[in-house]
């Protein structure tokens, strides 16, 4: 009887061993699936974050590199412009000094010429007397008036008086030869109004003194200087 009771108890314990049901198995599968999906999602997020971090780093590096390049380019351009301005300023200053020096030398040449002109325009100089007569005739041709006033230095009055008739006669001949027409011009010397400088020459004006031809030697020299300054500079400062 005791052996039967022991066997019955042993069988009862075997029969009481836990066996999961179908529902529990399904729940277990769902949980594993959830864990797997969760793990996969976590892995996906990690990968995505890693990729985003890498892209962000690359973007930051590109932006910083661009800033550095822009900053360098700005500094380079600023320095380039600064140097260019310095070179231009130095060059302009040198050109200005060169131009001022040239102008000084031209003026020096003019002053020296005026001194020589002063010596040339002595009343007793025959070459000056000849030139004075030619200047009077030139003014007569330019004016083409029947009557003209002649203005000269006080020291030249006597000489001009002595050649007045010759000038009038030569004017008639010259105009007849050049135009085949008859022209006459009567000259009168102004004896109360003189050229005041030391360089001589002559000034002619029509009867009402409204049209004036200035053939003063100093004025002619200044006019020549203004009209031919580039040529004068080229003569004084030939290029190598």
In short:
This protein has helices spanning 2-15, 22-120, 126-143, 157-179, 217-227, 229-236; strands at 147-151, 186-189, 201-206, 212-216.
Task: Please explain how this structure is put together.
The protein is α+β, with helices and mostly antiparallel strands. The chain folds into two domains: 17-120; 125-236, hypothetical protein PF0899 fold (2-Layer Sandwich), CATH 3.30.2320. It contains six helices and four strands, in the order αααβαβββαα. The chain has helices at 2-15, 22-120, 126-143, 157-179, 217-227, 229-236, and strands at 147-151, 186-189, 201-206, 212-216. Strands 2-1-3-4 form a four-stranded mixed β-sheet. Strand 3 (201-206) and strand 4 (212-216) form a beta hairpin. Helix 3 (126-143) packs across helix 4. The model has no long low-confidence stretch (mean pLDDT 85).
In the CATH hierarchy, what is the class of the largest domain? Alpha Beta
CATH architectural group of the largest domain: 2-Layer Sandwich
Low-pLDDT segments, ≥5 res: none
Structural class: alpha+beta
Overall tally of domains:
2
| Rg value | 58 Å
CATH superfamily of the largest domain: ATP synthase, E subunit, C-terminal
Shape call: rod-shaped
* SS element count, helices: 6
Q: Strand order within the widest sheet?
A: 2-1-3-4
Please bin the fraction of helical residues: over 70%
Q: What fold name goes in the CATH topology slot of the largest domain?
A: hypothetical protein PF0899 fold
Distance between the termini: 146 Å
Share of β-strand residues: 5-15%
Order of helices and strands: HHHEHEEEHH
Count of distinct strands: 4
Average residue pLDDT: 85
Biggest sheet, in brief? Answer: 4 strands, mixed
